[in-house]
Amino acid sequence: MFRTVAQFDRIGEENAFAVLARATALARAGRDIINLGIGQPDFRTPDHIVEAAVKALRDGEHGYTPATGILPLREAVAADVTKRTGAPVSPDNVVIVPGGKVTMFAAILMFGEPGADILYPDPGFPIYRSMIEFTGARPVPVPIREENSFAFSAEETLALITPATRLIILNSPANPTGGVTPKAEIDKLVAGLADRPDIAILSDEIYGQMTYDGLGHTSLLSYPEIRDRVILLDGWSKTYAMTGWRMGYAVWPEALVDKVRKLAVNCWSCVNAPAQWAGLAALTGPQDAVSAMVAEFDRRRRVVVEEANKLPGVSCATPKGAFYAFPNIGMTGWKAKPLASALLEEAGVATIGGPDFGVHGEGYIRLSYANSTENILKAMGRIGDFLTKNA
Ligand code: PLP
Q1: Is the C or the N end of the chain the one with fewer CB within 10 Å?
Q2: ipTM attached to this prediction
C-alpha cells in the first residue's frame, strides 16, 4: 500500500501525554498538582536492575545488538512466558522492542489496509484506534461495558466479525478500566474463532502480572489451537516500573516473526544495549519488588474505590487489574472531558476523561492510582470539594 504525507494526518494522540505536560507546566508555575493522570508506576526501577544497566555500560556494551535483541534476553523472555502460560516459546519467536507500543504498531501495520476490519476495545488504549486509522483499515470498536465488569464479551466481539476482519486486539487486564476478562469468556472467544483461522489476535497483556483478589491472568498463548496466530504483547514498563527505559517484547507466530525482524532492522536496529541487560536482570533476578508493588497497588485500589464511591454523583466499580479505576460520573451533571479539564485547572488533580479512550468512555474518568495513598486521599478530597461546589 502506498502511504502519503496526508496519511499521517490520520494519526491520533494519547491525551495522557498532553495532560502530563499541562500538569507539569502548572506545577512549574507553582501550583500544587496531584497526578492521577499518567499510567506509569510511581516506583523506581528496582536497584538490581539499574545496577545491571550500569554494569553493562561499564563492561562496554555500547554497540548494536541483534535486531530482535540479545540472545540471553530472548531466552529469558521465552522461559518466563513458558513458565507463565505453558506455551512452548522459542527465543527465535521473541522480538525485543523499544516499548510495547512498537509491537502494536508493527502488528496493526501488518494487518491494516483499506478494506480490512480491525476490532479493538472501546474504551481502550487510544493508540489502537490511532494506528488502525493510519493504515486505512476500518476501526471496529468492541464495547467494553461496566455492566459486564469491563470485561470483553465473547458474544459481542464475535458478532462484530465480518468477512473483512483481519485482526482482533484484546487487552486484559485493561487500560483504562482495570477490567479483567475471565477465562470462561476467553474460552468462548477462542472457540468462536475456530472457523476463522485467517484472523490474527494481538493480545496486549502488558498488565498481566497485575491482578487482584487472587484472580490470576489467562494468556491467549495458553490456547494451543490459536498459537499460530497470536501475537503476545508484553514488556517491562509496568511490571518492573521501567516506562522510561523503553523496553518491550512480543512473541510472534512463526509465519510473522521474520517480517518483524526486518522491520526492526529498517526502523530501530535494536533496543539500546544496556537496557536489554537491565531487562535480563529484571527477568532472572528476584521478583519480590514486583509482588511488593502489586500489593501496594492493591491497597491503593481499595482506597480509591472507597473514596470514589463517596463522591457526589459518582459510582465506582472495583477494578480487578492494572492500576486504574474508571468511576462512572454520569450522575454528576458533568461530561467527562470538561470535568477532567476543570479538575486539573481548578482543583489541581490530573485525571483523564473517558472519551480519550473511545466513544464508550463518555460518562467516566480514569484515575491512575500509581500515586501515594496520601496523595490519593488528598486528591479525592479535592475532587469531592469541587463536585460539591460545582454540581
Ligand atoms: N498497552 C497498554 C494497554 C498500555 O496501557 C500501555 C502503556 O500505557 C502500553 C501498551 C505501552 O507500553 P510501553 O510503555 O511499553 O510502550
Answers
A1: N
A2: 0.99
| Domain 5-45+288-389 falls under CATH 3.90.940.10 | no
- 3-state percent helix, strand, coil for the chain, nearest multiple of 5: 50, 15, 40
Q: Is 351 in the pocket of ligand 1 (CB under 6 A)?
A: no
Q: What is the pLDDT of residues 244-280, one digit of tens each?
A: 999 999 999 999 999 999 999 999 999 999 999 999 9
Task: Say yes or no: CB of residue 181 within 6 Å of ligand 1.
Answer: no
Cα 101 to averaged position of ligand 1 atoms, centre (Å): 6
The burial class, CB within 10 Å (0-12 / 13-18 / 19+), for 5 is exposed
User: What's the sign of the alpha-carbon dihedral 43, 45, 46, 50?
Assistant: negative
pLDDT-based confidence at residue 14 (cuts at 50, 70, 90): confident
What are the residue boundaries of the structural domains of the chain, listed by start?
5-45+288-389, 63-284
pLDDT at 34 over 80: yes
Structure confidence by residue, pLDDT tens digits, 373-386: 999 999 999 999 99
Check the CA dihedral 98-67-86-289 and report its sign: negative
Ligand 1 proximity of 121 Cβ (cutoff 6 Å):
no
Q: What class, spelled out in words, does domain 63-284 have in CATH? A: alpha beta
CA of 206 to the centre of ligand 1 (A): 7
Q: Which H/E stretch holds residue 260?
A: helix 254-267
